[in-house]
Every structure is written in C-alpha cells, then in structure tokens.
Fold this protein.
Amino acid sequence: MTVPDDPLPASDVLVVGDGLIGLVTAWRAARRGLLTTVVGRHCPCAASGVAAGMLTPATEAMFGEEPLMRFGALSRDRYPGFVAELEDESGVPTGYRSAGTLQIAFDTDDLSKLTELGELQTRLGLKAERLTARECRRLEPMLAPAVRGGIHAPDDRSVDPRALLAALRTASERRGVRMVDDRVTDVVVSADRARGVRLRSGGELAADQVVLAAGTRTPGIGGLPEGVVPPVRPVKGQLLRLRMPRGEPPIVTRTVRGLVKGSPVYLVPRAGGEIVLGATQEEMGDDTRLTAGGVWELLRDGHELVPGISELEIAETCVGLRPASPDNEPLLGPTRLPGLHLAAGHHRHGVLLAPATGDAMAEALATGELPDYARRFAATRLS
Amino acid sequence: MTVPDDPLPASDVLVVGDGLIGLVTAWRAARRGLLTTVVGRHCPCAASGVAAGMLTPATEAMFGEEPLMRFGALSRDRYPGFVAELEDESGVPTGYRSAGTLQIAFDTDDLSKLTELGELQTRLGLKAERLTARECRRLEPMLAPAVRGGIHAPDDRSVDPRALLAALRTASERRGVRMVDDRVTDVVVSADRARGVRLRSGGELAADQVVLAAGTRTPGIGGLPEGVVPPVRPVKGQLLRLRMPRGEPPIVTRTVRGLVKGSPVYLVPRAGGEIVLGATQEEMGDDTRLTAGGVWELLRDGHELVPGISELEIAETCVGLRPASPDNEPLLGPTRLPGLHLAAGHHRHGVLLAPATGDAMAEALATGELPDYARRFAATRLS
C-alpha cells in the first residue's frame, strides 16, 4: 500500500470519530502504548455534546435488555476509578456527581410499571429502594404533590458529558494521541485488510487498525465490503438546558427520572445551577429540527413532575442524534474485515458505557479479542 | 444654550428612539418638511422587533377600552394607504396581509366571553361575524375538532413588524432624516424649555422640539422636571417563531386568535412559512429571560387550538418588553415642558397604532396640538 500524501507516520490505531466513544477508545488504547490518531470534526448534533449524562443502568426503557443493563452496571461501577484517572491525567473536572437517582411515578399506571422495574433492578443486584410519595418528596421537596411513589437508586451517578469530552481530549493529547481535524470519507482497504483512511481534505492516513466510532455517520463511511458495518440509524433527541436564577438553591438535588402517564422524562442537575430536561426519542432520520411538539412534551411532563420548573430560564435548546444499531445494543470490537473495528451504536447509553467501552476496545485492539463482559456486543453478531 | 460638541446643525425635531413609534414619527414629521433627527440604538428586547404584527383593533383584552379600540380601528383603516406610501417611498415590502382574523373559543366559557366581545365589536361598528365550530374549521381546517365556535373579523390585517421597521428606516432616510446610532442620557433643558439631548457618547444635539419615543427606556431619560414623563413600565412578552417544513402549505392561512380556558393565544402566519405563536403578558420588571413556564403555556395553548403545530420547527424564541403607561393607553404629543413631546406607552398596540400615531405626532409637531382623534391620549392627562 502506498500513502503518498500522508504527513504522519502510520498509526497503530486510527479512530474515526472524536465523540465520547472515539476519544475514550483512543485514550485507553494510548495508555496501552498504542500509537493512536483520532480523526474527527465537531458536529453540533453529535450525541456526546447533547447528552444529559445520567449514569443510570436501570431505566424504564430497558425491559428485555438485561444483558445491556448488566454491562451498564459494570460500566457505572468503573466510573469512580475512571473519572479519578481521567481528571488526574487531564486536570479537567468532569462534573461527576454521586447523588443517586430518584425514579418517580406520576399516576397509578406509572407506579405499576415502576414497581416491575424495581423488581427487575433487585433481581439484577442493583440497589433499588421503593419509596412512598411522601418519602420521595422528603428527598426532593419540589416534586408535584400528586406523584404516586418512586424508587431510589442510591448508586446511580451523573456526569457532565461536555466536560467529559474536554477531559478525554486533553488526557488523550497528553498520552500522545494525535488529533486530526478532518472528516473521513473512506476506509482504505487492500489485500482484504483495512490499511488506513482517506480524508475529505484529500490525504490518506495509514494505520495498522482502524476503529469506526463515528456515531450516526459510521455507516456512511465508504470503501468497505458490503455487510461489514451494520446499519446505524439516528434516534433524534430534543432536550432543554434550564437555569436556576442566580443564587437560588437547585430545584432538584439529584437526577429525577419520571414516568408521566407512560411518557419518560428526566431532570439532571449540575453544579452551577444548570438542569438538563430531556429527552424525546424520535425515529426521524437525519432531521435535526427543534420542534414545537418535542419542546412541548418535555415542558409538559417536566412541569407535571416538578411544577417549579416554570420559573427557570431556558438557557439552551438542543437536538442530538443517538446512533442506534438494529438491536439497539452497541457494536464493539473486530469486524469481519481484518484491521477494522467498530465502537458504535451506543444509542442512549454512550455516556454510561464509556468506561467499559474504552476498556473493551483497548483490549480488543491490543489482543485482537473483546473481553468476556463485552463479547455479547461483538460487532460481528449482525453481519 | 451652547452645544459646543454638536456636529450637526440644530434639528426642528429630534426623536429619541428608533423603534416603530420613533421612526414613524420621524418619517411623518419629515414629510411635513421638518428637519428631523432620530437617536437610537437597537435593543433585542425592544417591542418593535419582537411584536407579532396583528392589526386587530378588537381583542379579548380590550373590554373597557372602547376609545382605544376606536383609535385602533382608525389606525387599521389607515394601514392600506400607509403601507402603500411607505413601500413606494422605501422600496421595502412590509409583509402587509389582508386575510382577516379568526377568533376562536376553545370551551364553553371561552365562547361566552367571545360572544360578549362580538357584541362589543358590532356596537363599535367593527365587522364581526359569529361562526359555528364547523364554519371556523371550514376557514381553517387545521383547528382542533374540539373548538366551540368563533368570530370572523374580515377587516383585520397583519404586517411584519421587522419589515416595517426596515421600510420606515429607509423611507425616513430618503426623506432626509438623520440617524444617530447612540443612546440619549438626558434632555437638555434651559429657560423652562427642552432644547436638545445629551448623548451617552458625550456630545449634545440641539433641537427645537424633542420627542421621547424610547419605549420602556423613556422614563429613564434624565434632565427633566419631575412628573413631566409618567411612569412607563415593561410588560414582558415571550413568543415563538415557528416554521413550516419547506414546501408544505401553511398550517393557518390567516391570523388565528384563541381563548383557551381563559388564556389568550394567537398564531400569525407570514409569507415564507413563518408562524408567530404568542404571547405571554408578564409584569416582571426588566426581566428578559426566556422561561420554561412561558414557552410551555404558549405551546400548550397553541397545541389545544391547532394540534398540528407540533410538527413545526421552533425557528426562534423571542422575549420583548412592551412599554405600558399607568392606564395602559398611549402617551402622545406635547408635555407640560415646552418643546418636549411623548410618543410612548403603546403597550400591546404599537404596530396597530403606528400610522395614526405618526399622523398625530406630525400634526402636534407642526401645529402644537394633537388632532381630535388622538386628544384622549394626550401625554399631559396623567401629569
């Protein structure tokens, strides 16, 4: 293979995508001594910069997804060590908070769904304390008087994904990861092996192994034999960043997830007075319009749960596209094409799964095989 | 009086404020041959750039305000000639539309309020046709099936206030009005007469007559004897600019005002696919935060009236401050201080009242007296 325009020496690992999954893969690979390059260009609708940052492995959407829930719990349990290392190496705070999560049922139907979820959580060994409405309001006094009860998950956490991105970028650079601000158009394949990538700006970069971690853009990358990369579809999410008036105490002190007449909604507080209110889940293709209906649903359900949000400022409106695989589980590790890996399809769980994904990918890149705990999510399962 | 730093010769008329009311006053004064200067600096929360542009003299808020309604009807009737002249002089289209207004009652209580309003409109000689729910939906098929009935006001109009501002600025400049991009700190008073203004940048501008048309900033202008300028308070309005998907027909074809469980809401369509959804009315002082509660109310009531708005993009969120006098009616013409006029306090009606205000102010500036039709609104009534 000739790569005439390559200004860089060949990498051991070239990661396509500079979101959370791409950067965590690069950082962990570099810590294993692999010479690593990341190619990416910030996109405002990339999931990483929009995500709320809940680290809640058990959610109302995950019935029938027990293996994913276990993987999530494993990743959540790695978070304290992960952020400690990351903040130490980068010097950048990640906004990690260990205040737990309160899951709230708005009406009787919601309560029965939540009860089933609580039983599932207990069965999986996740801490889940059933609370009366009064106990919920004792934890979060601004909850609507009408709520019917809830579950307290004291081990759930949250993190600020934008801070996490910044920390991962700095830590990666300090570990010698090379950052290339460009888009990848194609994987360069020769003699049945991935050998590098072609850039939109024209050049090529050579690498021993290529990781596609480009979120919803992953299937759009050319040059690959058919079927090597499963479809990854965008799942649109709209959310609002609300802000407390200066000097006022936060309206909620921990992540509050609600089921409001069957509709899920959450409030994630951050240091500094920001509250993330999210999020819609819409199968709308590449549509990234902020819509009247999406914002209305968020405000309606958020208001039912915590009426006092009415007084908060809407500081920012966000639309993001979550990358979802056909079975809604991540696609990790080697593909059928030698030299080509995937780290994609994390759907709603990219932030939660970042530490475990980084570890699993570094293992696969160093040894050629995913660790046991990640094998279920092998990229080859769908191809 | 000495104005040593004045780079301009003294004006016949100096208008403080470059919003709709200031510019319409300047343009009409210039057309009377008065040498006119406008001093102002764009403020994003000024009412003119945020207003929806309904020209609907009879609204649910105006019971007990019959004289204002008559003034509004007079001004609306001047609109066709006004925009024809303005577009001719400026070459700038104003987005004037003559499609009429449909007033909709959501429930039975709303219908009885609307019925009273219809009777008032008829008594005042305004065209108002009572329609059944079916007739309303024949005019606007996207109305919610549940609406109870309405009133069609075929003579109501709408205009695009941002386009109107641009047209007034161009027309004024073509009439020789001088535009000064600055803020006025004080009126210069000597020998018991207004003689000009002092600028924030330092200089002074001399003028034979000064008009304060600075909206909610009007009472903050210094240098004046107490009581000459009545209080003008800000009334906060939040609204949304929605956008139809490209190529789709508009969701409403005329202004639709609704009463939804007692809460007023409106949708104003514009050429190009924009729909303005407004507006809150909040007595919050200078607060210009976009709030969760404000946006939620708009979307909730808008959705009750026209459920299909859910599909529309939120293209822009706006917060404006309407300038309201103590009796909520405009303050026009000469004050007790010779040489000082007011054109302020137009509250929700600045766009509607612009033509009549321009004419009345030009008359007062040329002759010293307001015309009969504007005399009720004399600035001296409250001082």
Notes: Chain A has two domains: 11-48+163-231+326-382, 101-154+233-324. The helical segments of chain A are 20-31, 47-50, 66-90, 108-123, 133-139, 161-174, 292-305, 350-367.
